[in-house]
Amino acid sequence: MTTDADVIVIGAGLAGLVAATEIADAGRKVIVLDQEGEQNCGGQAFWSFGGLFLVDSPEQRRLGIRDSYDLALQDWLGAAGFDRDEDLWPRRWAEAYLAFAAGEKRSWLRAMGHRIFPVVGWAERGGYDAMSHGNSVPRFHVTWGTGPGLIEPFVHRAYAALAAGRLTFKFRHRVDSLIVTNGVVEGVSGAVLEPTQAERGASSSRTVVDDFTLRAQAVIVASGGIGGNHELVRQNWPQRLGTPPRRMISGVPQHVDGRMLGITEAAGARLINRDRMWHYVEGLQNFAPIWPRHGIRILPGPSSMWFDATGKRLPAPLFPGSDTLGQLHAIMATGYDYSWFVLTQAIIKKEFALSGSEQNPDLTGKSWLMTARRATNKGAPAPVEAFKQNGADFVVRDNLPDLVAAMNALSGDNLLRLDDLRSQIEARDREIDNAFVKDAQVMNIHNARRYIGDRLIRTAKPHKILDPAYGPLIAVRLNILTRKTLGGFETDLDGRVFGTGGAIMPGLYAAGEAAGFGGGGMHGYRSLEGTFLGGCLFSGRNAGRAAAKAVA
Length: 552
Prior knowledge:
β6 (173-181) and β7 (184-193) form a beta hairpin. The protein has helices at residues 14-25, 58-62, 69-80, 88-101, 105-110, 146-163, 230-235, 259-266, 324-332, 345-351, 361-364, 368-376, 382-390, 400-411, 418-430, 440-448, 452-457, 532-550, and strands at residues 5-10, 30-34, 51-53, 140-142, 167-171, 173-181, 184-193, 208-221, 249-250, 271-272, 277-285, 295-300, 305-308, 338-344, 352-354, 394-397, 473-485, 488-489, 496-498, 504-510. Strands 1, 2, 5, 6, 7, 8, 19 and 20 form an eight-stranded mixed β-sheet that branches. It is built from 18 helices and 20 strands. By secondary structure, it is α+β, with helices and mostly antiparallel strands. The two termini are 15 Å apart. It is globular, with a radius of gyration of 23 Å. The longest helix is centred in the last third of the chain and has 19 residues, at 532-550. Its cofactor is FAD.
């Protein structure tokens, strides 16, 4: 067979770039295909906060955090809840990934110039028991430079390989089918789309100007998930989470459409755990959207009071930052697809961050001066203040009656009763008078402030919500925000894809979100956060190295 390259990689996102650069660095020739233009090189990772899950890192140790592989494994298994026959390879991937996160992950990245913001975040805190969901300690390491800073080393490596003649980019090449001969994957075919000048993340033309066929000894599918395709999200929505939301906003661009999942499955690949997904419940409508239904996630501290659409406080331990999937289940059980934060200006100043590189110009721009102002400014960070002033989901008032009336007007459902909200807020406020309390959320706040990172920049001083000294009052309508596909193609630890008959499909590999970040779903049901980008790094590296050896 005449080949155009040793390996073809489908997708120029983070997993695809990692795989392609590993192949090129091994001396093999690789073609990288992507249906979008060159301006989208790096994929979804560009838009990310750049959070990475690390275990027993120097950053943790400097902050007095005691972590270990065993503690991380305990937390991972409590979150994942592996309970299916199909979880054999996902669990093996989880164990291997944790060894990577506790081992060479940091040094491997650091050797490429990657750096980490010194304060470690505490995401998905759980709050059940030691063996249940949640991070026992802070593990969320933010890339200095956020998403763009994370993809930068791999973009640099890719273009160095391009200059050396070992890597070829073919943007605007949409794969429509895999070429399979006698069960062996030998290449791809598809359509060439017209050039596009659409800005990164914006929807691009699907006008076809040509077709193509390319052959190689191996094909790696690194095409991402389904978060931009709400029809597919609803088709795969699990019954355990109730009826799919009537309305959702998108945390990923429209080109995250899931096409390659169907195409690869039709070629014989085994897709597992498709009902496992990770969508956020703290979504805001972007007042300056880049892609259709563009949403931004709030990264909340622990102090905002959380109410469902009917005005009932979410039960313990479903506090901000504790259990994304548990919160989604509770919200959908109400029959409504939105909920509310009620907070103060003091809380929004200290505790609100927005996910995304473009919402964090200080970290993305690597400005220590701008970053320091987060702790010293009188107001919230500028992007947060911009959403407070311009966002469709924010209500700001000086007193509770006016706030509740405006909340009802915004939702249009008129479900909230002033007396109900007042009684719940006043009851919580009475708990602030003592350092010892029975309100679980207030206990959670005190616990958070025992960690120096939270006390300095992430958790407001405990205060009464209705104390005007900390006002004005703020309400935020929270929307369901689509994001990650946790299931994917079943793979071994080399990223080789299993076929529907249970045997490896020769010549076919998968990495990143298309592989459920490893094995077909290494997260199980829940993520501990910081593990999506890390899963792309690890699965892309494994698949790239294995494919390079296989074509030697």
